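Assess this today:

___
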Amino acid sequence: MREKWTNRFDFLFVTVGSAVGLGNMWRFPYLCYRNGGGAFLIPYLVTLLVVALPQLILQVSLGQYTSLSPVKAWEMVPAMKEVTPYVVLFQVWKDALLQNLYSLSLGSGGMVTMGSFNSYHHNFMRDAIALSVVNSCASFLAGFAVFSTLGFMAKQQNTTVDLVAESGPGLVFTVYPQALSMMPGSQFWSIAFFLMLFLLGLDSLFVIMEAVSTVIIDQFPAVFDKQLKKIFMRFCLCCFYFFAAFITVTQGGMYYIHLIDNFSSASWALLFSGGCECIAISWIFGLDRFYEIMCNMLQFRPRFPWFKYCWKYVVPLLSAGLFIYCLVLYKPLVYNRTYEYPAWSIGVGWLLSLSSFLWIPGYAGYYLIKKRCLEQDKQKTSDEGKNQMEMEELKVSIAESLEL
């Protein structure tokens, strides 16, 4: 039996802690910087409304309905059990969409897992909208802090903003320390700032760890039947992530972070998994069928269910278009406009990406082949049984004829 949140605000606070993290503090500002500053907000808000928020509602409602981890929850659609001068324009929209998916932990199982701890009639739509608003406000706040400081630094040095700092994951770690050093009591504010970064990362990690551990527990309930075993498994996961992250604090750590960020954390794998989720619910399980389930959980019918049409049309088409764009117009990865990654590192990056989403079509193909084989075996058994019955009837008929 799945444990449930003890307070109606527990889910909201946990998901806000997961969403508002390092992605808001450093990834959003540098994506704005790379894609034209304030102009980036237009595709960011549009993709939030038509892709990210509908996917958030879908994933939370799925977890709340099934009260299961992502792998088990998708058994309702068995084939999807393993489930997210124009070139420049597509790049901006791709970055905006991926930032929304990455920041809201969509396509990675976190929101499905957190939703599985909700009571059946919890108002997840209210929390999804609140989470989206809080997450976006945190990103905007970080962006304002970065760009105001960049403007001040450019004026102090009598130069332009693009010459003050390079666009990259380290942008925020250049700008914030510079701003803090100019404040009264800079040592105190510096300690507070980096302590905040540590707590933001830790809070997001809680949800990631819970998503992974819940999948393992749901897959092997007989093995993890006692609380002590669950604690030991989570401890082993923490140790694994701790030692795996050592590479990011070496001298070349920023290069590895940039590689992981582009190929794994917020890559086309999120586009693929998100599109597959919406296709599974809308076109396989049944859009109206799932919508009725959702309304039953909410105990009311939304006045304008725009997210239904986003699930069925917008998300699959936009995700597929941007996914194909990412593959067709792929360019070698470059860091800080100067360092081009070697071939072996690009190979590692592709392995990271493929390991994230190849399971979806792979398992779907396996399931369909298995289902087809079972149907053929069933038909063969049925035919053999029918033939045997006909033979028995023929034997009886012959025996009766001989007796006569």
